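User: Need the bound-state model for zinc ion:
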Amino acid sequence: MAIRGFDESLPIDLHTHSSVSDGTEPPGAVIRAAAAAGLGTVALTDHDSCAGWAEAAAAAREAGISFIPGVEFSTQIDRASVHVLGYLVDPADADLLASMTEVRESRLTRAERMVERIGADYPLTWQDVLDESEPDATIGRPHIADALVRRGIVGDRTEAFEGILHWRGGYYQPHRAPSPVEAIGLIRAAGGVAVLAHPASRGKAALRPGWMRRLVDAGLQGLEIDHRENDEVSRGLLHEYARKLDLLVTGSSDYHGTGKPNRLGEHTTAPEQLRRILELGTGSRPELAVADDSGQQQR
Ligand code: AMP
Ligand code: FE
Ligand code: FE
Ligand code: ZN
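Assistant: Bound-state model below.
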């Protein structure tokens, strides 16, 4: 049987979002945009949901590029938000599903509470937010931001995040989230590969003393180092951790469609790192575009 692979000569982007969470395009459109941008491999990593995988895999097959199934878990250390990427997890794993469902439900009530508070000061209703989100999407502040934009209350998502939706903006509410230790355990138990997303973004909670070791002890396997939210100094530190702790290293765009300035392929992952991920992940199958040396197609 021929083993399929990915095109190692083309760029690899392992972190993107669709309208299944807070991206602005459906999963298939994200994949087509990735192919159009010249990427050879792309992972879809919606927040707390695997619901976009089937559409993304079909679109990748059609477009002739490779697709890696992934998910970005919302977790927290104390009250600070930490994101953990899980690649190739089993999407039907009961514990994983239960955790994702709990987080999504809590995100929903939390968003309703925020909108209630915002609605006391601005002409914003819960229906406005529903109008900006796909059914069953993982609801987040970006959807509230879009509703604020639609209502003309702010100019764009960024303005919303810097003001009304800021955690110190007066309307912020937290949602339930597991600790990263818990999430990493769930990812590993579901056959996935656990990579810490943008470790140096706001708060840098995972870089606090002791945490990196704790996360690695819990089963963390990689660090997303090349990402616009990691500053240069932190990237140096993260590379040191990766060397010392034998962690794999990724780079990605964190594309959200028109919802964020991040462009597809603005940061990429080296082929040997993706090979490691493919060797380690056993919970689900990637959709790989290239047949092995024998030239035989598997399908
Ligand atoms: P939440 O998880 O609901 O608290 O919202 C955080 C999410 O909003 C993150 O996953 C980001 O993708 C998105 N986000 C954060 N800052 C911005 C921004 N300035 N513009 C657009 N999206 C943002
Ligand atoms: Fe997001
Ligand atoms: Fe993130
Ligand atoms: Zn993300």
